[in-house]
């Protein structure tokens, strides 16, 4: 039994080695570069050796190896399509994100401001703004008219803007100092 397996392995290895020149030529035609082709052939041989139990003896070894090589090439190309070459660190040095602690502090401020609203306004804005209910559904839950809900929400929004000191879109996201720092980082 061991002799049969050894003979099969020897035949497998012999057939695989015989296909190397053709595999390399095919790899060069796919990659266009000799060093990349050599790497691709090596990856193919390693995969084929690991999966030799999937090869059906008596079938076309060369076709099987070419299929592995082609699939490996396309897998590598898909992977490279999602990667950015940044060997000198230029892209990495330009990455910047808004610090998370500001978002946490903003949320704390919002919660405090929400607590300062009258209960009917707080309930209305939470039902529509946070819970996603339609005005009609919120009106039904609160037992009042749709116009009343709209009025409560409008007054709640205005009061929240006043408490939080929000005057426009510029008040959201990084503050003026952070925005200037980020802008300078990307300008250089």
UniProtKB/TrEMBL annotation:
<dbReference type="InterPro" id="IPR036388">
    <property type="entry name" value="WH-like_DNA-bd_sf"/>
</dbReference>
<dbReference type="InterPro" id="IPR013325">
    <property type="entry name" value="RNA_pol_sigma_r2"/>
</dbReference>
<dbReference type="InterPro" id="IPR013324">
    <property type="entry name" value="RNA_pol_sigma_r3/r4-like"/>
</dbReference>
<dbReference type="GO" id="GO:0016987">
    <property type="term" value="F:sigma factor activity"/>
</dbReference>
<dbReference type="InterPro" id="IPR014284">
    <property type="entry name" value="RNA_pol_sigma-70_dom"/>
</dbReference>
<dbReference type="InterPro" id="IPR007627">
    <property type="entry name" value="RNA_pol_sigma70_r2"/>
</dbReference>
<feature type="domain" description="RNA polymerase sigma factor 70 region 4 type 2">
    <location>
        <begin position="108"/>
        <end position="160"/>
    </location>
</feature>
<dbReference type="InterPro" id="IPR039425">
    <property type="entry name" value="RNA_pol_sigma-70-like"/>
</dbReference>
<feature type="domain" description="RNA polymerase sigma-70 region 2">
    <location>
        <begin position="20"/>
        <end position="82"/>
    </location>
</feature>
<keyword id="KW-0731">Sigma factor</keyword>
<protein>
    <recommendedName>
        <fullName>RNA polymerase sigma factor</fullName>
    </recommendedName>
</protein>
<dbReference type="GO" id="GO:0003677">
    <property type="term" value="F:DNA binding"/>
</dbReference>
<keyword id="KW-0805">Transcription regulation</keyword>
<dbReference type="Pfam" id="PF08281">
    <property type="entry name" value="Sigma70_r4_2"/>
</dbReference>
<dbReference type="Pfam" id="PF04542">
    <property type="entry name" value="Sigma70_r2"/>
</dbReference>
<keyword id="KW-0804">Transcription</keyword>
<keyword id="KW-0238">DNA-binding</keyword>
<dbReference type="InterPro" id="IPR013249">
    <property type="entry name" value="RNA_pol_sigma70_r4_t2"/>
</dbReference>
<dbReference type="InterPro" id="IPR000838">
    <property type="entry name" value="RNA_pol_sigma70_ECF_CS"/>
</dbReference>
<comment type="similarity">
    <text>Belongs to the sigma-70 factor family. ECF subfamily.</text>
</comment>
<dbReference type="GO" id="GO:0006352">
    <property type="term" value="P:DNA-templated transcription initiation"/>
</dbReference>
């Amino acid at each position: 039994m061991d002799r049969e397996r050894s003979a099969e392995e020897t035949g497998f290895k012999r057939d695989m080695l015989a296909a190397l020149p053709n595999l390399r030529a095919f790899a060069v035609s796919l990659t266009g570069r000799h060093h990349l082709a050599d790497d691709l052939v090596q990856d193919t041989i390693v995969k084929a050796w690991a999966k030799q139990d999937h090869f059906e003896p008596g079938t076309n070894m060369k076709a099987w190896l070419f299929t592995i090589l082609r699939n490996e090439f396309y897998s590598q190309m898909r992977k490279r399509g999602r990667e950015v070459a940044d060997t000198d660190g230029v892209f990495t040095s330009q990455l910047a994100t808004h610090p998370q602690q500001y978002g946490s502090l903003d949320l704390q401020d919002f919660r405090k401001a929400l607590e300062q609203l009258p209960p009917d306004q707080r309930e209305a804005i939470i039902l529509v703004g946070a819970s996603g209910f339609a005005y009609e559904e919120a009106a039904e839950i609160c037992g009042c008219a749709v116009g009343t809900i709209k009025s409560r929400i409008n007054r709640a929004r205005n009061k929240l803007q006043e408490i939080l000191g929000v005057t426009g879109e510029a008040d959201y996201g990084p503050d003026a100092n952070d925005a200037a720092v980020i802008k300078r980082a990307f300008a250089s």
